[in-house]
């Protein structure tokens, strides 16, 4: 062992944002493969301009957000196409968002209720001025033209004439 051995150093420094506690910037990037597994039909449906929920094979409970087993009775579910129209159950305006949503901030998230579904669906609302958003507003699903196979491939808009009802 060489007691005088040294690791090579560069002149590159570290960006320090705070001293107590120490906060510094560190760039990190990774690519990974991700499987939607049993939820794959939901994302394939979005690419085909369809909203797929699930329906219990025993008690017929309909879930707007799909699941493999019924939360009421535990039985398996099957895929069930939801209508493209619904109503706003509740909403919130987000003034902060992750990197993917910075260009859209502020944006509105809504919980959509569908006729015949027992649960709600979380999505974004587009094209409606904040002062015109209300509970019960009729909305229609819209889909990105080029699917990214992500939950954000679907969003909602007010149905024609619904804003002024």
SSE layout and pairings?
Blueprint: E1 16-19, E2 22-24, H1 40-47, E3 52-56, E4 62-63, E5 77-81, E6 85-94, E7 107-113, E8 120-125, E9 138-143, E10 154-158
Antiparallel strand pairs: 1-2, 3-4, 3-5, 6-7, 6-9, 7-8, 9-10
Number of domains: 1
Structural class: mainly beta
Radius of gyration: 23 Å
DSSP helix count?
1
Q: How are the strands of the largest sheet arranged?
A: 8-7-6-9-10
Measured as a percent range, the helix fraction is under 10%
* Relative strand content: 25-35%
Largest sheet: 5 strands, antiparallel
Number of strands: 10
Show unreliable segments: none
Identify the overall geometry: elongated
Q: What's the SSE pattern?
A: EEHEEEEEEEE
Gap between N and C termini: 82 Å
- Average pLDDT value? 92
Write a structural description.
This protein has 165 residues and is mainly beta. It has one domain. Helices cover 5% and strands 32% of the residues. The chain has one helix and ten strands; from the N terminus they run ββαββββββββ. It has a five-stranded antiparallel β-sheet, with no helix packed on it. The model has no long low-confidence stretch (mean pLDDT 92).
């Amino acid at each position: 062992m060489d007691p005088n051995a040294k690791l090579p150093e560069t002149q590159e420094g570290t960006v320090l944002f705070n001293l107590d506690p120490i906060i510094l910037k560190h760039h990190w990037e990774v690519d990974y493969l991700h499987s939607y597994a049993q939820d794959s039909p939901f994302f394939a449906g979005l690419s085909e301009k369809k909203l797929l929920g699930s329906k219990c094979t025993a008690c017929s409970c309909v879930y707007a957000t799909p699941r493999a087993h019924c939360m009421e009775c535990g039985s398996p579910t099957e895929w069930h196409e939801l209508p493209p129209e619904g109503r706003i159950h509740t909403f919130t305006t987000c003034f902060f968002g992750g990197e993917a949503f910075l260009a859209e901030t502020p944006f509105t998230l809504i919980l959509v209720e569908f006729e015949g579904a027992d649960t709600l669906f979380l999505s974004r609302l587009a094209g409606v001025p904040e002062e015109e958003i209300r509970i019960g507003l009729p909305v229609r699903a819209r889909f990105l033209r080029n699917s990214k196979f992500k939950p954000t491939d679907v969003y909602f808009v007010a149905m024609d004439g619904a804003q002024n009802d």
